[in-house]
Write a structure and sequence with these properties.
The complex is a heterodimer of chains A (296) and B (284). Chain A has 296 residues and is mostly helical. Chain A has one domain: MetI-like fold (Orthogonal Bundle). Chain A is 72% helix and 1% strand. Chain A contains 13 helices and two strands. A two-stranded antiparallel sheet of chain A has the order 1-2. In chain A, helix 1 packs antiparallel against helix 13 and helix 10 packs antiparallel against helix 13. The longest helix of chain A has 34 residues. Chain A is globular, with a radius of gyration of 24 Å. In chain A, 42% of the residues are buried. The model of chain A has no long low-confidence stretch (mean pLDDT 84). By secondary structure, chain B is mostly helical. Chain B folds into two domains: 71 residues, no CATH class; 203 residues, MetI-like fold. Chain B has a two-stranded antiparallel ribbon. Classes of the chains: A mainly alpha (296), B mainly alpha (284).
Chain lengths: 296, 284
């Protein structure tokens, strides 16, 4: 049996593609649902209403709250993770036994399921016996409210996100730092260039592609974060930590309003698609750069 | 004097980093060997007699609580489910992904790059957008609450991951070796099986372990598409913590047992982690 040479690569990729196309159909269904009045509790009301769901969510203050909370969450997680990840990477850049061990151990939080990470922290900040509360009492911070108060819940969630995902940035930047060419640093050393100048004019610019890749990866994940928030606060108290996906989840399973949930998800998808577009371009550039060869 | 201050700051930074990132894990391990009384003390106890009661109770599925009757917990099944789902997903991914990765690496074909990026974009689509309709579909065609359906959906995460990592490894192998072998009269499949796969083996192994970790850590798919009968540890542990009257030591123990497999695997693929996490964009 001889398969046409031109067709052969398609034959190899077809199974993988078919499996995913099975998943693509629901995507179109979701878009279709978003144009319908569709509530599981009122099946007889089901009908085509064009963009009413979208008009609905965009005139709904609670959806604007969702957008605000999601963006706040994304902004702070990424800024903190970037700064902290960069700092740790710089600290660990020199190879010695301590840094090597820490480089391995610090990846562990990243390998823990985000949902389980939330549970770990729930046990650590439990108002009755949480060890963190006990430790904080030494610096005079008694009864910090953590996830039980609207003012502190976002802080708590961001802290857990930082705990899980800073290692992601750290490990990528550490690899980046260690792969930088030595010559510019040696030249700067000879010229007696001050440390901060070396950092801002040599290290940072050369590290930039790595920083960009790491933060774009995080950006896409952070804006869609569900696990950490669902396992820790479920969007509450009130709606103070209601992000896109948690909101859509509750819309579906509490209010059975499929049409509205679908519309929300389409909005989130549009944001992600835009980010993904930027992302793929940059990422491909970096791939070419680090590999030193031109890929089609 | 200036040197000393910097040195001190550095030490403080190390301590802070270790405390923030590693102490929580260590403390959960610690808690899993405590009884409820020991955990509930206002001032944490550092020295106590470690008990394995939590671990035994978790495995046997029942634990006696003072003042209450015997409590039944359903965690062993969650563990088994996690194992089935993760191993199943990785196997399917290997079967589908390795040939596809090879095709993307070796052949320049029309639409090839588009297909590769389409597959990649699944990893970045909002999970709920796809699962919500899928939930209704699966209910209709009777696939709701089956391992088969979940393993299928898990491919959305594991397949692009494996595809993009392994592709990089195949690209690093010179095609000349394969051509030489084929000139000896061997078929394409023979050269793929005997030459390409063995050469890319470290990459394939690392990628599948990373896929395993991602599959094991997944939460949202099983939360929505499965009943408690087939849900993995991530969902099971949440049910555990929200149920009342379960001893805290037992919860900690459940968490430890759930995170241990991925932590151990992570140590094995240390060398390949950077390349894996960046989908092949950065070489570690």
């Amino acid at each position: 049996m001889k398969i046409n040479r031109k067709l052969f690569p398609y034959v190899l990729t077809l199974p993988a593609l078919l499996v995913c196309v099975g998943i693509l159909i629901p995507f179109f269904t979701a878009v279709y649902y978003s144009l319908q009045r569709y509530n599981l509790k009122m099946p007889h009301m089901k009908g085509f209403i064009w963009f009413d769901n979208y008009v609905n969510i965009f005139t709904d203050p609670s959806f604007w709250n969702t957008i605000k909370v999601s963006l706040t969450y994304t902004f702070f997680t990424i800024i903190i993770e970037l700064l902290l990840g960069l700092g740790i990477a710089l600290l660990l850049a020199k190879r010695n036994w301590l840094n090597n061990i820490l480089g391995v151990l610090l990846v562990l939080p990243l390998m823990i399921a985000p949902a389980l990470a939330s549970l770990i922290w729930r046990l650590l900040i439990n108002p009755n016996f949480g060890i963190v509360n006990y430790l904080l009492s030494f610096i005079g911070l008694d009864d910090f409210t953590w996830a039980s108060h609207p003012d502190t819940v976002l802080f708590t969630l961001i802290m857990v996100d930082v705990w899980v995902f800073t290692p992601f940035i750290m490990i990528l930047l550490l690899a980046g730092l260690r792969s930088l060419p030595r010559q510019p640093f040696e030249a700067a050393e000879l010229d007696g260039v001050p440390e901060y100048y070396k950092f801002f004019r040599i290290t940072l610019p050369m590290l930039f592609p790595f920083i960009l890749t790491a933060s774009l990866f995080r950006l896409l994940e952070s804006i869609q974060q569900f696990d950490i928030i669902y396992a820790l606060s479920q969007g509450g108290p009130g709606e103070s930590s209601m992000v896109f996906q948690v909101s859509a989840y509750l819309q579906t399973f509490q209010y059975t309003n499929i049409g509205k949930a679908a519309a929300m998800m389409v909005v989130l998808w549009a944001i992600c698609y835009f980010l993904c577009h930027v992302f793929v371009k940059q990422w491909h550039k970096l791939k070419i750069k680090t590999k030193g060869e031109l890929l089609q | 004097m200036k040197f000393n201050i910097w040195f001190l700051l550095k030490i403080l930074a190390y301590i802070a980093i270790i405390m923030f990132f590693l102490f929580p894990i260590a403390w959960i391990f610690n808690m899993s060997f405590m009884t409820n009384d020991e955990i509930l003390r206002k001032v944490p106890v550092l020295f106590y007699e470690p008990t394995f009661k939590n671990y035994i109770g978790l495995w046997e599925g029942e634990i006696a609580i003072e003042g209450f009757a015997t409590m039944y917990v359903f965690f062993k099944q969650n563990l088994i489910n996690s194992a089935i789902l993760s191993v199943g997903s990785v196997s399917v991914t290997l079967l589908l992904g390795v040939p596809a990765a090879y095709a993307f690496a070796r052949y320049k074909f029309k639409g090839g790059e588009d297909i590769a990026f389409t597959l990649l974009s699944f990893r970045f689509a909002p999970a709920l957008l796809i699962i919500l309709p899928l939930n209704l579909y699966f209910s209709k065609i009777g696939l709701y609450d089956s391992y088969f359906a979940l393993i299928w959906v898990y491919q959305l995460i594991t397949l692009p991951l494996l595809l993009w990592i392994v592709r990089g490894y195949f690209e690093d192998i010179s095609p000349d070796i394969e051509y030489a072998y084929r000139l000896d009269g061997h078929s394409w499949f023979q050269s793929f099986w005997r030459i390409s796969i063995p050469l890319a083996k470290p990459g394939i192994a690392a990628a599948s372990l990373l896929c395993f970790i991602y599959a094991w850590n997944n939460f949202v798919f099983a939360l929505i598409l499965g009943s408690s009968q087939i849900q993995p540890v991530t969902v099971g542990a949440l049910a555990f913590i929200t149920a009342s009257a379960i001893p805290y030591g037992l919860i900690a123990c459940g968490i430890v047992v759930s995170v241990l497999p991925t932590l151990i695997l992570a140590l094995f693929i240390q060398k390949y982690l950077v390349q894996g996490l960046s989908l092949g964009a950065i070489k570690g």
